[in-house]
Amino acid sequence: NESTTHDTRMVLVTSNFHILRTAILARHLDLDAEVTGARTAFYYLPSAILREYTAILFEYKWINAVACLAMAALPLLVTVAAISSHELPVGVHGPDR
């Protein structure tokens, strides 16, 4: 039984709007790959890019959910902290101004 290792480099070719998701998948699979894209008709790009963006959001839904909740909670936490310390955030004036 001869054990050999292959350092295989590869080029993955896909539509240009699939490049990011393909690169993410290649990295996840620990592939030493370069990703390149073939041209896509200009009229097709807006919907294709939106679908790819949505696919990435759903693929990492828990990370994105936690990040969105943290960003949504931050203004509330700042407001609660300002009220509890009786100070208003910069740019917010009290009722007597």
Strand content: 5-15%
The total strand number stands at 2
Principal-axis shape: elongated
The number of distinct helices, counting runs of at least 4 residues, comes to 3
Main beta-sheet strand count, sense and barrel state? 2 strands, parallel
Into which percent range does the helicity of residues fall? 40-55%
N-to-C order of helices and strands: EHEHH
Low-confidence stretches: none
| Gyration radius over CA | 24 Å
Structural class: alpha+beta
How are the strands of the largest sheet arranged? Answer: 1-2
The total number of structural domains is 2
Let me know the average pLDDT. 85
Helices and strands in order, then pairings?
Elements: E1 9-15, H1 19-28, E2 32-38, H2 45-59, H3 61-84
Parallel strand pairs: 1-2
